[in-house]
């Protein structure tokens, strides 16, 4: 009885809160976040499913899940010293528990945690999109950073399983889906630029991915975004998996709005269809 | 798989403020109790991020060290050294 009402994709770069506070409300990034926030509010969600990758903060290499879900009634963040306000927010524990049970039943053996904080990958988008933190979230983590990553087919199937779970949730609920992450980004490896610790190695891939998204060519994107292709786009470019999982939830719609910033490696997008 | 400890040290430098301060003050003493291999310890103390990367350390975690210039790793020094690294195992 619950229904999916919107999909949202944005960046989660940890420097954004401080940068946008400094640049002011008229900056390109501030305008983009505001436009997306307006669309999300107009969709009137009762709950927000968030696909994100944990950057070794909620989890670490002693126990690092490929797919995981957070099931609790509250959480706090950011838990990684990101320069931004700290928040406590509600988790939709009933929807989370239902998604957990239904996806396991559907063949996705999720790891789960009942005691967790969340890092910048969730908190930076939420800070800009829902600063009052009144919409309970369901955090879903995908390993986008530590190879072997799940494949794009698998991430998309995971999204479809989450959609089926939402549709079988026995309460009336409007559910939006948020994802975030770079399409191209290299951090800390031999491919970084001189005098920097990060760079965007493949702005053309950002434009290419954006073009596929704009025209709802999801199957093409899934086919082209092989592990090798993602690695070429950067050691953080696997964050596209968050977007592909989100597409699995919402289905093959064209976005109402999409704008890439290829030089920054990322894009902003909104999907609404009614 | 002892390179795990190098990753753990980088992560702990972010989350454990007392370790971070100790690493800034006296790196050799700060890691004395950590059971690194000789090669790992030598590479850490020399700020040889290229070697650590070649040994399999995670680049995202390694670059944390530039935030506090631990082991002498300013961003330009890190970048110059890392850009010469070979492939990890």
Oligomer: heterodimer
Order of helices and strands of chain B: HHHHHHH
Largest sheet of chain B: none
How much helix is in the residues of chain A? 25-40%
What features would you describe in this structure?
The complex is a heterodimer of chains A (274) and B (89). With 274 residues, chain A is an alpha/beta fold. Chain A has nine helices and twelve strands. Chain A has helices at residues 16-23, 28-42, 93-105, 120-129, 152-167, 203-214, 218-224, 227-232, 240-250, and strands spanning 3-10, 47-52, 67-70, 74-77, 87-90, 111-113, 137-142, 174-180, 186-187, 198-199, 257-261, 266-271. In chain A, the strands form three sheets. Chain A has an eight-stranded mixed beta sheet, with helices on both faces. In chain A, strands 4-5 form a two-stranded antiparallel sheet. In chain A, a hairpin with a 4-residue loop joins strand 11 (257-261) and strand 12. In chain A, helix 3 (93-105) crosses helix 5 (152-167) and helix 5 (152-167) runs parallel beside helix 9. The mean pLDDT of chain A is 98. With 89 residues, chain B is mostly helical. Chain B has seven helices and no strands. Chain B has helices at 3-15, 17-25, 27-30, 38-45, 49-54, 59-62, 75-82. Chain B is globular and about 35 Å long. The model of chain B has no long low-confidence stretch (mean pLDDT 97). The chains are: A alpha/beta (274), B mainly alpha (89). At the A-B interface, loops of A face helix 1, helix 6 and helix 7 of B.
Helices and strands, with pairings:
The complex is a heterodimer of chains A (274) and B (89).
Chain A: E1 3-10, H1 16-23, H2 28-42, E2 47-52, E3 67-70, E4 74-77, E5 87-90, H3 93-105, E6 111-113, H4 120-129, E7 137-142, H5 152-167, E8 174-180, E9 186-187, E10 198-199, H6 203-214, H7 218-224, H8 227-232, H9 240-250, E11 257-261, E12 266-271
Parallel strand pairs in A: 1-8, 2-7, 2-8, 3-6
Antiparallel strand pairs in A: 1-12, 3-7, 4-5, 9-10, 11-12
Helix pairs in contact in A: 3-5, 5-9
Chain B: H1 3-15, H2 17-25, H3 27-30, H4 38-45, H5 49-54, H6 59-62, H7 75-82
Helix pairs in contact in B: 1-2
